[in-house]
Structure formats: C-alpha cells, structure tokens
Amino acid sequence: MELDSASPVSKLADHIEQSGLVVPALADEYRYASLPLCVVDAVFSIGVRYTSTQKVVSNLCGYTGWARFAPSREDRGAGEHGLTDLMAFFDTLGVEGMADTVFHNRQRTSSRSGILKSEAVLLYCRALNEAGINTFADFDQDRCEYAEAMILGLPGQSSGIAFDYFMMLAGDDNLIKPDRMVQRYLANALKLDAVPQPRQAAILVRLAAKVLRTRGRQWTPLCLDHAIWRFQSAKASAKD
C-alpha cells in the first residue's frame, strides 16, 4: 500500500513508530471461555471505565459458576456455554433481576432515555440467535452480517461500536473499537483540533496497521487498537 508521506495514514503510522508502541499480548478478555461473556463485555463497556465492565463479567461468572477465560483464543473451540444458556437466566430472573442480582449494575445505554444495559444484552442475544449464532462455532459471514443488520437497529446501537468490539472479542482480528482513548490518540498524532469520529478513527487505524505491515511490523488492526488503548490509558492515568 503506497501513500503520500503527507497523508494522514502515513503520519499516523510514523507517529505509532515514534511512540514506541510494540505488538502487545492481548488482554485476557480476548480469550473469554464463552460467547455470552463477549456480549456482556461489549454492551457494558460502552461509555464507562472498563474496570466496571470487568466487574460485571466477574459477577456473571460468580453467579453462574461459568469459567471466565479459556487457556487461549485457539483453545476455546465452540465455547463452554452458548447464548441460549444466558437467555435462560433472563427467562427466570427477567431484565431487572439480571441487572440487580446477576450483573449488579444498572447502567443504561444512554443517560437520556437509554435502556438498561441488562436489557440490551438480552436483545443482543436474541438478534444473534435469530441469525443462527449461539456459540463461537456458529460464526460465518452471512450470519454475522445478518446479526449486525439487526443489532444496529437496537436502541443505542446504531454506531456499531459495540458490535465491532463484540466481534473482536469473539475472534475477529481485523476490527477496531474506536473508543475515546483511540480517538484521543489519533487527535494527538494528527494534531487535530477535535477528536475524529468513531468510524473515521477505525478506518485510520486499520489503514495504519496495513502501512506498518508493509514496513515489516507485525500489526493486526486488533493488536494496534489494543496497543493504542493501553498507551493512551496509561497516559490518562498518569494525569489523574
């Protein structure tokens, strides 16, 4: 991929190299033992500190007795539990009961008229199940595209950020979660007056990963996203 050295993508690739970013070991969340945990993480992680999301997943595993992580992404196979297993708890406890008794979290998808994230998890599971997805073994392009089309129509999900992050957790290395940390990193790298929009940020990071691979760097979009997030998070923590 050849780009002018003055292009935003080339500038971003240069900045990434100058920042000293290295390909990181992926966080434990990328080896969740079951697909339902990927849904819960993706839904609850939007717009909040990630530590609160980790607590929600831990609460779910504590309540259900499910394993949280597989030994590796490659070893998890179909996964220990499917989305129907999680939906069975919703059938018993309801959305409110799951929020209070299982997740111990009543966050909403939006501070203005948003639904409980607990309800959003259930709607996600139903949409994925309707598309024929219950475990990691059920993924194929047609099913994923159908699921995405339905999920983008759910309350608070039109940006697609949570869906892309769900797919990353489920094993797709070619996507980006363009959250605030990534947006801030790009704004600084490209000396922008305002942070880029999420979709723009995702495209820039994906293209930068491609440029860096032509330079001999072994970046996937997912690894680059994770490295940027860790770098910017550490920078933000140092200011607190």
**What gap, in angstroms, lies between the N and C termini?**
39 Å
Count of separate DSSP helical elements: 10
Q: Which structural class do you get from the secondary structure elements?
A: mainly alpha
Provide the β-strand percentage band.
under 5%
Average per-residue pLDDT, rounded, comes to 94
Shape: globular
| Global Rg | 18 Å
The H/E string reads: HHHHHHHHHH
Taking pLDDT < 50 over at least 5 consecutive residues as the criterion, the unreliable ranges are none
Total number of beta strands: 0
Biggest sheet architecture: none
The helical percent reads 55-70%
Question: Summary?
Answer:
The protein is an all-alpha fold and 240 residues long. It contains ten helices and no strands. The longest helix is centred in the middle third of the chain and has 21 residues, at 83-103.
Describe the SSE topology:
Layout: H1 8-18, H2 35-44, H3 50-64, H4 83-103, H5 117-130, H6 141-151, H7 161-170, H8 180-189, H9 198-214, H10 221-239
Mind explaining what this structure looks like?
The protein is mostly helical and 240 residues long. It has ten helices and no strands. α5 (117-130) packs antiparallel against α6 (141-151). The longest helix has 21 residues, at 83-103. The mean pLDDT is 94.
Task: Supply database-style keywords.
240 residues, mainly alpha, 10 helices
